[in-house]
Amino acid sequence: MSSGDHDLEDLEMQVVRYKPEGLDVLCRKSKFTRKELQIMYRGFKQVECPTGIVNEETFKEIYAQFFPQGDSSAYAHYVFNTFDHDRNGSLSFEEFVMGLSVLSRGTLQERLQWAFNLYDINGDGFITKDEMTDIVSAIYEMMGRFSEPMIDENTAKEHVDRVFLKMDINRDGVITFDEFMETCRRDENITKGMAIFDTVL
């Protein structure tokens, strides 16, 4: 057996042995009850992730099941990266739970922070027009050609131009976290839009 085979075997053993943090710790860190976490973990392991870890491809497959009318792969990629806090290319059960906890039960502030992180693709603390265009285009692709009204490339660009102009308060070509928060808090439609995550679970 070559050295490479041993490395692969060692990796497989580590993956097989992965155990999540104790449920009590996750209960304290997340906004889920012990019973909810047990149900989620059972589903997480049985349905899609028997190793207890999700890679990006599996995550995209799961997302595709919820959005069969469009191509959700680009958006799933961005969500995956936002959930993957340690940037190791896989999601542990804890990372998955913490992401869901923020989206489904977090305060408006926590959900807006999560949304900012989603749009701030490179993690530099600013949202550029290109980053916003990438996310909005991915959302439009995911919604598919059957969405009402019909969405095309120009629609995404017009949407980004309008929103970016509103959010870039000091007109310096980037959106800071403070500008993002201030605009979102003032815009009733954004606040209502964040409320849809309340019904995730």
UniProtKB/TrEMBL annotation:
Glycosyltransferase keyword on record: no
Stored InterPro entries: EF-hand-dom_pair, EF_Hand_1_Ca_BS, EF_hand_dom, Recoverin
Keywords of the record: Calcium, Metal-binding, Repeat
GO molecular function per UniProt: calcium ion binding
Domain EF-hand: 71-106, 107-142, 155-190
SUPFAM superfamilies on file: EF-hand
PANTHER family: CALCIUM BINDING PROTEINS, EF-HAND DOMAIN-CONTAINING PROTEIN
Family: Belongs to the recoverin family.
Stated name of the protein: Kv channel-interacting protein 4-like isoform X22
Native source species: Crassostrea virginica (Eastern oyster)
